[in-house]
Each structure stands twice: as structure tokens, then as C-alpha cells.
Design goal:
alpha+beta; Jelly Rolls; 14 strands; about 20% helix; about 25% strand; elongated; disordered N terminus; membrane; SPRY_Ssh4-like
């Protein structure tokens, strides 16, 4: 690029014979390598040089067009000679930049070492009486639960067989609110003797509920015969006197346990829409409701075999349904217990045809559902009467007395 700049500049200079000068310039550039480059010629072309050969004597060294090729001019050589030492990427400055500092890396500095150094002395367990770690619990070993009592069955919302209406239950709750439970009575000695001997009187359902009671009579001092028709609605039959007197029978009063018991012998249950319930209840009790559905009452219902304790819902699974020609007994055991002060512990048990089974019993104060109405009146603090519920067409015999079981 520098070469053509020099050529144009030369043509623009005024001379006596421009054509001749141009020819010479072209010759000097393209034909005679011995002549000086145009940029080195004398700018006064009108005068003759003393020696024309001197004008065409090339200067020492290579021509400008060969600078940087082959042999290098001294200035260019100095310009392109690499500096001594390693290239910039390996200069001392770069080496200094990446040389790690003396001593341990930052993560192992003295301050960090101090933080993680163990405390002086032996480990805590060394030399002590508890040198071994405590034993761990082997969760792979499944404990034997055969000796543990079974968990209580879950409460149910309704019976799979027969259910009363919501209206009936609502009226009964209102009735109980208006008629609180009687306070415990203090029986005479004579009355206690008669009760213990089984000389108990039954009371038939009142008013319209008695309309479909076909049989209701005493067959012996300790036995009653009862029969109902198919249109019999829910009704309860109660004993006239308590089988358990809180003031006279409580273990907290007598210092000894008390057991009360009675049984029924079923002659006939007509169909699936008929049934018998057996249990205990405090007075007064809504006469159109079965035992176990309301406060201070419990019952085992023969149509579904479930047990009820102050439970107006569906009860809990318990035993097989009652059958015709079968004897069902129910008892309550009251015992004193020293737990957070003296109190009475109550257990209910059932017999079938004279046979007892641990599975046919439960603790009254077992785990309860939050919707249940508690166990008030059943823990030995109130009088309890024999209670028999009926509906539909049934026939049975009731027997009282300590001798039955």
C-alpha cells in the first residue's frame, strides 16, 4: 500500500518531460531493481546529476518491499524480536499471581483447626462405668400381644338390622333432660334380703306401649313370663326395685365387691323385625327406648349382638345374635380400686346357656368415643334396675336370684 502512494506522489510533481519521467519511473520500479525507489529520487528532475549511476545505486540492505521477508531490517528485527524470558502467559507476574500462599490452605488454617480439635483428655465414655453404649430397642422383634386385652371395638353409626327413628331419639333426649335420675335410695334390711333372694317384681310398659303385650305374669317368686305381638314397638320393662343399691352395696361402703345378675330364657323370636335387649338402667328411663341408648344405662341387643353404654348410635360389635331356645344372662361386678383415690371399678359380663367367656365381658370405663355420653351412673354411684327391651313378636322368661348362672 505504501508503494502506490509513493508512485502517485511522484507523478504530481511538475517536470520538463513528464512522459519521459513516467517511463523512467516505471522502469525503475518494474524493470531495474538497481535504481532507487521512487520515494528516494531527487525531487529536482530539471538538473542533471553529476553521476547518473549514483542515482540508481541501491542503498544497502534489502528494498522496502522485502522488509519483513527473508532478512529482517535492523529496526524491524528489534521490533519483532521476542523479549527474553517466558511468554506473557508464563511471566513472573502471572506466576506470582497463581503461586499458592505459604502454609495450609484456608480451610485448614489455625482458627478452623482450633474449632475442630477434640477436647483434651480421653473420650467421655472412656474410663467411666458406662463405657458401652446403651442397648437399643430391636424394632424387628414383634412383641407377643396374646396376653394383652383386645382393644375395644369401634363405635358404629347405626345397626345393620333394626334402627329407631331420629325423632324417637330426640324426644327421648328431651325427656331425660326433664326427668333427672333418682338419687340413690337407702333400702331396709328386709328389702335387701328379698332382692338377694330374687323376689323381684317386673313392671310392664306404661300406656299405649302395653297394648301389644300379650303375656305378662309371674310364674314363681323369682320368675316372670313375657310375650309380645308383632306390632309391638320399642319398649322397656324395668324391675320395681334396684338390683344394685349404691348406698348399701357399694364396695366403698361395705369394703367388699358386689355382683348382681339375672337371666332370660328365650322361647321365641318371630322374625328379623323382632328382638330382645337385656341390661341395666337407672330410673326414670324413657319407656319407648331400649336399654343402653341413654344416660345411666347399658344393654346387649339380641338382633345384632351389639352392646350399648349410654350410646344412642349404633353400639359396638360384641356377641352373636340371640337365638330361640337360648338362655342369656347378664351381670355387673363392682370392686373397689385404689387409683387416684378410692373409686369403684365396674365390669359387665354375659353368659350363654350357663357358659362364661372372657370375650363376653368389658370394662365400663373403657376407652370411649367423644360423641358418647360418658359412663355416669354406672360406676357404682347410683341405683341400677334390671332392664329388658322388646320390639316385635317375642316370648321369653325372666329369672332372678343369686342361684342362677
Amino acid at each position: 500500500m505504501g508503494l502506490f502512494k509513493s508512485l502517485r506522489g511522484k507523478i504530481e510533481v511538475g517536470t520538463d518531460n513528464q512522459g519521459q519521467g513516467q517511463e523512467r519511473e516505471e522502469y525503475s520500479v518494474y524493470s531495474s531493481p538497481s535504481g532507487p525507489p521512487p520515494s528516494h529520487r531527487n525531487r529536482n528532475r530539471g538538473a542533471e546529476n553529476k553521476d547518473r549511476d549514483d542515482d540508481f545505486t541501491p542503498p544497502t540492505g534489502p528494498p522496502p518491499s522485502y522488509r519483513g521477508q527473508g532478512q529482517v531490517h535492523n529496526n524491524d528485527a528489534e521490533e519483532y524480536v521476542p523479549p527474553t524470558g517466558p511468554p506473557p502467559s508464563h511471566s513472573r507476574r502471572a506466576e506470582d499471581q497463581f503461586v499458592p500462599p505459604s502454609g495450609p490452605p484456608p480451610s485448614h488454617n489455625r482458627r478452623t483447626d482450633d474449632d475442630f480439635l477434640p477436647p483434651p483428655g480421653p473420650p467421655p465414655a472412656s474410663g467411666s462405668s458406662n463405657a458401652n453404649p446403651p442397648p437399643y430397642h430391636d424394632w424387628t422383634v414383634i412383641p407377643d400381644t396374646a396376653l394383652l386385652p383386645p382393644p375395644p371395638p369401634l363405635p358404629q353409626d347405626y345397626s345393620p338390622t333394626n334402627n329407631a327413628t331420629y325423632d324417637s331419639a330426640a324426644r327421648a333426649h328431651e325427656w331425660c333432660a326433664r326427668n333427672p335420675v333418682y338419687t340413690p335410695s337407702n333400702p331396709s334390711h328386709e328389702l335387701q334380703v328379698l332382692v338377694n333372694a330374687g323376689h323381684i317384681t317386673l313392671e310392664a310398659p306404661p300406656g299405649p306401649l302395653k297394648r301389644h303385650v300379650s303375656t305378662f305374669r309371674r310364674t314363681s317368686p323369682t320368675t316372670w313370663r313375657v310375650g309380645t305381638q308383632k306390632n309391638q314397638q320399642d319398649a322397656i320393662i324395668l324391675s320395681s326395685v334396684p338390683l344394685y343399691f349404691a348406698c348399701a352395696d357399694s364396695p366403698l361402703v361395705t369394703g367388699r365387691s358386689k355382683t348382681t345378675y339375672f337371666q332370660i330364657h328365650i322361647h321365641r323370636i318371630q322374625n328379623a323385625n323382632s328382638g330382645i335387649a337385656i341390661g341395666y338402667a337407672a330410673r326414670p328411663y324413657p319407656p319407648w327406648r331400649l336399654p343402653g341408648w341413654h344416660r345411666a344405662s347399658l344393654g346387649v341387643h339380641g338382633d345384632d349382638g351389639r352392646r350399648f353404654v349410654n350410646d344412642p348410635w349404633g353400639g359396638r360389635d360384641f356377641v352373636a345374635a340371640f337365638r330361640g331356645n337360648e338362655t342369656i344372662g347378664i351381670g355387673m361386678e363392682f370392686k373397689a380400686q385404689e387409683v387416684a383415690g378410692r373409686r369403684v371399678k365396674t365390669r359387665v359380663f354375659v353368659t350363654r346357656d350357663g357358659r362364661a367367656d372372657d370375650r363376653w365381658g368389658w370394662e365400663i370405663d373403657e376407652e370411649r368415643d367423644e360423641r358418647d355420653e360418658g359412663v355416669d351412673g354406672l360406676m357404682g354411684e347410683g341405683d341400677l334396675y334390671a332392664a329388658i327391651g322388646v320390639f316385635g313378636e317375642v316370648e321369653f322368661e325372666v329369672t332372678f336370684g343369686d342361684s342362677v348362672r
